[in-house]
Specification:
Elements: H1 9-13, E1 15-28, E2 31-44, E3 48-53, H2 59-66, E4 74-79, E5 82-83, H3 89-99, E6 100-104, H4 115-125, H5 134-144, H6 160-172, E7 178-182, H7 190-205, E8 209-213, H8 217-220, E9 225-230, E10 233-239, H9 246-256
Parallel strand pairs: 3-8, 3-9, 6-7, 7-8
Antiparallel strand pairs: 1-2, 1-4, 4-5, 9-10
Helix pairs in contact: 4-5, 4-6, 5-6, 6-7, 7-9
The structure holds adenosine-5'-diphosphate and magnesium ion.
Amino acid sequence: MSTHPSVNSEQSIQPVIETRQLTKNYQMGTVEVRALRGIDLTIRRSEFVAIMGASGSGKSTLMNLLGCLDRPTSGEYLLDGVNTNSMRPDEYADIRNQKIGFVFQGFNLLPRTTALENVELPLLYDRHQRVTNPATAARLALERVGLADRLHHIPSQLSGGQQQRVAIARALVNQPAIIFADEPTGNLDSRTSMDIFTLFQELNDEGITIVMVTHERDFAQYARRIVEMRDGLIRRDTPITSRRSARTDLLNFQNHTPDESC
Ligand SMILES: Nc1ncnc2c1ncn2[C@@H]1O[C@H](COP(=O)(O)OP(=O)(O)O)[C@@H](O)[C@H]1O
Ligand SMILES: [Mg+2]
């Protein structure tokens, strides 16, 4: 599936994400938790950003705001050039549906539902019904993530890595401007994680913008930029000059790990 056929230079200069002094407070009874304390972040088209930081530093809160799953307490958020601040809830849901794909640590697939139906769901939820043939779009997305032969399997009939591939296909099916992945390999072993990162790197090489949270510094090296958070603020923002190849790491890992069937 070719989602971003040509990324011209003008498009790559325009930020897909721009936040200004974004904050988020949670009210816990009488206590106010200041989860984000003023985030200024610009992400351009075709970037691959890894967000790192200790537990509780605000990574998921930031992902949920950027992914339009939740709204900020204050500050501005421009998504693909559109200011989301003044949007009504239905407009907010629309922009989420049109521009964003989300991948979660726990896959979040419907259990008694086939891979094909899980991937079709975002298209069926689209109140504008922009895609005329959801089944075909879902099949193409599943083919893209290497699951052409698993269309009619339900999640319990799939491995963890395959379930996450279904979730990635579901994130891709709307041809979003950006994919957010919050600890996408947190429930997967090393080999399967590298396999998933190989897929993310391929998608990014095709021009898809990716923002992911990861705990593991090794995995963050598969991105092109690392944003480190602490106590609700960005503490460091570093480009990766020589990106590691997940495919190469996977091959080396396989060559150096004894085959258990021997
Ligand atoms: N729904 C919520 N209600 C209250 N506090 C929350 C909620 N979600 C997160 N927090 C708090 O906000 C802070 C940041 O959490 P989170 O964004 O989940 O961090 P991370 O993903 O980096 O572990 C933490 O102190 C956490 O306890
Ligand atoms: Mg988190």
